[in-house]
Amino acid sequence: MVSLLIGKSPAILISGLGAMAAVLMLVFxxxxxxxxxxxxxxxxNMLKMGDWLEISKYGADGSVIDIGLTTVKVQNWDNTIxxxxxxxxxxxxxxxxxxxxxxxxxxxxxxxxIDTSSVHFLSEEDKARLEKSNLxxxxxxxxxxxxxxxxxxxxxxxxxxxxxxxxxxxxxxxxYLTRYLTENPSIRKDxxxxxxxxxxxxDGVPLEVYAFTNTVAWLEYEAIQSDIFDHVFAIVSEFGLxxxxxxxxxxxxxxxxxxxxxxxx
Length: 265
Hints:
Elements lengths: L1 H5 L3 H18 L1 H15 L8 E4 L4 E8 L3 E6 L4 E5 L2 H4 L3 E2 L1 H6 L2 E9 L9 H7 L6 H18 L14 H15 L10 E4 L7 E9 L4 H18 L13 H11 L6
Antiparallel strand pairs: 1-2, 1-5, 2-3, 3-4, 6-8, 7-8
């Protein structure tokens, strides 16, 4: 009808509308993409005000303070503000830490490297000394009975010591840390709690603490984690173990002093 009124071909009108639509799409690309992304974020409950957002591509790591049609503003923990296109939260991967905050527990996942040359079987003197610990005594008694029963059934009186099962200082230390974390009032018992041995690497045997604190507050969480590892580093020598550490300049200097020929008067 319009083409008949103006006396023009319908093809001209359709091509004109197509060109106009292309221009509008180019001009309003960000608002349109932001509107679609906002609908997706809201419908899938992916993000809301106050969430802790981390997206490494844009250097954002902080709390969401504004969700607009075209941008999302994040106040980082150093009080800087990062502005992210709304559609980027749909097209790129990001971490929303709100699940951790709502769970009431924050994960500790940190390891120390044990010098492999310090790992050995426990002697009777070691067992007697470690049994004085209230945390270790139940484990040593139970494990000792288990190994004694197994060895008597499988090795016999004249069996080789190579065939017998024995306790190691590393395994006992792992059991001690597990018990220590279980008794720690700042650690949640209804979430995953374990001390595990990782695959050996060039820096030793990683022994990882995997547990959850009973608070998600950053300062309290860091204090709890630091207290635990203060104790770990201080107590490890009681089991005859050593923590691996790359030699520093003072170590190299001390070795050089030892290797230097002594001057003769």
